[in-house]
Write a structure and sequence with these properties.
about 575 residues; alpha+beta; Beta-Lactamase; Heat Shock Protein 90; 6-stranded antiparallel beta sheet; 5-stranded antiparallel beta sheet; 14 helices; about 55% helix
Amino acid sequence: MTSIKARFVVFMAIAAVAPLLAYGGVSIASLSRSTQESVRTGNLHVATRAAEQVDQYITSNIKVLTALGSDLRDTRQAQWQQDRILKNYALDFPELREITLFNMEGKVLATSSIGQTRLAPPSATLVGSRNTWLSPVTIDDDLLPTTTLSVRLTSVDPSRSGWLVGELSLEELWRLVDRIRVGTEGFAVLATQEGRLIAHGNPNEKRRVAIEGGSYAAQALIDQARVNNTSSAEYTSSTGTDMLGVVARVAGPGWWVVVEQPTHEAYAIARRTRGVLIGAAILALIASIGVGFHWGRQFIARILKVKTATQAIAEGRLEERVHISGRDEIAELGEAFNAMADKLVELTENVRKQERQAMFGRIAAGLVHDISHPIQNIGNSCKLILKMHDDVEYRDLFRRTVDRELAAIKRVLDDLRNVARPIPLERFPLDLNRTVTDVVETMRSVADTAGVTLTTRLTPSDPFIEGDVFALSRVYRNLILNALQATAPGGAVIVMTEADGDRARVIIADTGCGIPAERLPKIFDDFVTTKRRGLGLGLAISRKIVEQLGGTIAVVSEVGRGTTFTMEFPATKARPVAMEAAG
């Protein structure tokens, strides 16, 4: 439990440092956000510039092919002249490795290739009405990325319409991507719309381009940019490094430029600044706690005296008092505490007197009810014996009457004694069905006199428990007698046994008047009874016996419907000595 001193110190620390911590937290968060946003904006600017250069590279080659197509379409050269023009263009523009002219039916009209061309015009279903077409990126024999540019040639003369197709080497884009550096560990990546790598600025990742692979993390960033229109994200690379990635779209071909940088490098300045601010806040907090502890120790010392005295009062040492100097509120608190303690002593003594009087009253009333009738019967019998001492039959009746009434008085006294100390029990293996049957048979005459049907419903599994047969018989008899007394003539009392694994139960249910719900929690307390007469010890003693045998007792009742008592005991595999001998 946290002491008041510690709480006061914490309160002082919070009061002094909370504004600083709040300001520091807001500053750190703002600094982190602004720094991260600045880093992302800078990296995005690099990616955007690279995307513009890639788009310019593709656009310039498209313009070359478009200009070449215009020359071929508007002049009427022979095929060997067209081949010569295409070869000259291929020499002048080395990134265009091969150029081939096709008519609309896909027939080769001219080519810069020495032999048969490797190129083919685009499919009409893919191109549609577009005049330019960029085919998917592939890897050539030199393990370099390449693609095909196709430019539609249109003319009034259908024979002059067709496609001018050029194989475009993307090696220059490798050099462009290699030149992009962000910090010391940041690189650029160029990928197609599908995530197919074209170039990778990290030398250790270039092999992914050649093996037709892709960067999974970069692909995830591209997909996110395509769906959510976001330009940056943080993710984990294939090597397990946390990366900051920004993406920019290449306008023409729809490719993507991704700039990746490890977060530990990208956010290094923000983290260093955040560490300095956190360290300063921690030092301020420690200093405040130290000062608060020093001041609080002196201030709280008097309050701790009240705490110590309160604990003494709680432990029963009602004579404890506090002596606090000064004239402030804490001194007034000490005086109020002393006054309270004096009043508490007085009230406690009054409560004890009232409890003793109430207890003695309940015991006296119960004894009057339970003992007066037997004593009166004995007294009446003694008066008659003086007159009929020579009557043999009456002397026998006198003896039986005195024995019966003395036994009743003894039971009352035994109940009082058993409440004061635990009942000594002896445990032996018992047949639960047999113990119940024996008690029920002795109670049938009482049930017949009361006009109540008393039946048993025993489990066929013959459960055994360890217990004291006499103590259990007393519990059964007490509960059955209560049930008979609570049941009107014509009602029924059922005694059942059940076995459930390692537990055995005895259930006594009646159709009597029931017990009000507000009385149920207290019926097992000492000197609590729902009857007009008696000490109210029967159920209390029954619960003690059941619990001493390791069992539990519970009650469920509904007014006007009846009451059910359930006793549950641990079952045992041991058998009574008589059964073992017979076995």
